[in-house]
Each structure stands twice: as C-alpha cells, then as structure tokens.
Amino acid sequence: MTSWLRRLRGVFGMGLTWAVGWAVVGGAIMEGIVDPHGRLLDMWPQTLAIPGFLGGLTFGTLLWLAEGRRRFEELSVPRLTGWGALVGLLLGVLAVTTGMGREVLPFWSRAFVLVTPLTLSGALSASATLAVARVAARRERLPFGGLRSIADGEPA
Asked: How many CB atoms lie within 10 A of CB 47?
C-alpha cells in the first residue's frame, strides 16, 4: 500500500475513532447528566458523532500536514493537545458562524456555549488518542503476546 493511501486510511480511522468517542462519552454525559429527560435533544450520541467525525478528520489531516515525518506515538502530549484544541476551536467557530442555536441564544452566549466545550473536547480527544496509540505501540513491542504477533498469525 502506498504511503499516501496509508495516511488517508489513518485520517479516516481518526475520524471514526473520534466519532465513536464523542458519541459514547459525550452521549453518556448529555443523556445521563445534562439532559436526562430529552428536553433539549433526544438523540445525543448520534448528534455528537457527526462533529466528532469531522473533528477527527480535521485532526488527522492537520497531523498529516504538520507532523508528517513522525510516528503518532512519538509526538508530545502538550503539542498534540494543542492541535486537538485548535481543531475543537475551528469546529466551534464553524458552528457559531453557520448560525447554530441562533434562535435560542444571543451571539456571545452562543459562542461561549459552543466554542468552549468543542475546544475542550478536541484537546481531550487528542490526548486520549495519543494515550491509546502509546499503549498499542508498547504492546507491539512485547516479545510474546503482543498485538503484532496475534495480527500476523504468529504463535505467541
């Protein structure tokens, strides 16, 4: 598989990973704590998976362009968290400028309510993604029982 196809697969995988993460974690928080009776919205997991997918695609593309020569698990936590926060900020600004929630809140309140959680979610998603990548890389280096030996069909 060529290098750019592998990277495209990684970008798409990042989008799917963030979508699942935002749907599960964000959906559980919204359905369980913030809006348990469904007064604001009744389908939080599906609603949060969409910006999660877009954020993951954007994050993966940004890493491809900015950090293309490094392996993912080699990146530093603060740098990756900053990239994730930037992606969340961009998602929040996009939501505000397209008029999301225009009927409910005035502009500055809407900007705060949308931009702040999306920026924090982007930063947390980037940090969590790096943590998972480092655990997976550590398991691949194990001499017996690592993920690579299982995936390749080698005896453990």
From this structure: 16
The tokens for 43 are: 């389908």
* E runs forming strands in 1-150: none
Mean pLDDT of the chain: 82
Contacts of 132 (CB under 8 A, 6+ apart): none
Tokens of 85: 């926060």
Q: What digits encode the pLDDT tens for the residues 80-131?
A: 999 999 999 999 999 888 887 778 788 888 888 889 999 999 999 999 988 8
Q: Which residue has the tokens 């740098």?
A: 79
**CB count in 10 Å sphere of residue 139:** 14
> Closest Cα to residue 21, out of 11, 9, 29, 33?
29
